């Protein structure tokens, strides 16, 4: 969802509506997994300078969301996801957080479709 907005891809309107809704409601919280932000950062660093990357990451961090850092409970959930479904390590962390929080996962990644416990909003592919 991060690159959907940054690259103004199909689905940007969906993500922006979710962000705007979270900003206007006090009972709606968006959690961004640390590993999703890390993935965005390393991909940006492959194409942009560290200063340019930091500028983009600071813009993302200004979105109405909470950056979720690791916890033992989340680690256990991610380990379970990784042990049962054929997903990448990063996707296990991301799915684990959504399952742990009983939250909807906003994504484009077909790997998440295999995890029945996930509530998802699937963004259109590029």
UniProtKB/TrEMBL annotation:
It holds the Pfam family PIN. Residues 3-116 form the PIN domain. This is PIN domain-containing protein. InterPro entries: PIN-like_dom_sf (IPR029060), PIN_dom (IPR002716). The lineage of its organism: unclassified sequences, metagenomes, ecological metagenomes.
């Amino acid at each position: 969802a991060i690159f959907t907005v940054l690259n103004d891809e199909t689905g940007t309107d969906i993500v922006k509506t979710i962000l705007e809704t979270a900003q206007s409601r006090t009972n709606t919280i968006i959690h961004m997994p640390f590993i999703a932000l890390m993935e965005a950062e390393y991909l940006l660093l492959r194409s942009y300078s560290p200063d340019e990357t930091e500028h983009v990451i600071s813009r993302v961090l200004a979105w109405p969301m909470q950056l979720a850092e690791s916890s033992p409970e989340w680690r256990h959930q991610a380990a379970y996801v990784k042990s049962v479904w054929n997903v990448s390590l990063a996707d296990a962390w991301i799915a684990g957080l959504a399952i742990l929080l009983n939250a909807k996962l906003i994504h484009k990644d077909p790997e998440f479709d295999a995890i029945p416990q996930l509530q998802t909003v699937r963004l259109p592919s590029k």
